[in-house]
Specification:
alpha+beta; three-stranded antiparallel β-sheet; 13% strand; globular; binds zinc ion
Length: 93
Amino acid sequence: MQQGMLFTEAKEPKEGTDNHRVLEKLRERRFDYVCGTHFLQMFIKDYAQRIHDLKNMGHRIESAYCKEHPYWNHGHKGNVAMYSLKEFKEAPF
Ligand SMILES: [Zn+2]
């Protein structure tokens, strides 16, 4: 665990690519998670692969199961992953 990391040397994906769209969405919800179904709504079917790519580029992304989210009550079946960007600081929960 790296403490006090204020910026990252992670590579920035090219604008307009799905990797970039996924990263922008994660940044928008920086202190919360983004459910996998949200990426599906953005027509990013292979979001798990995009998350994998972003991790390989050096972005710190945490994943968990959507059903473990403290207040979401999504109706989807099965184990859908949710993702959270840990780029700037630790989440406050
Ligand atoms: Zn969900």
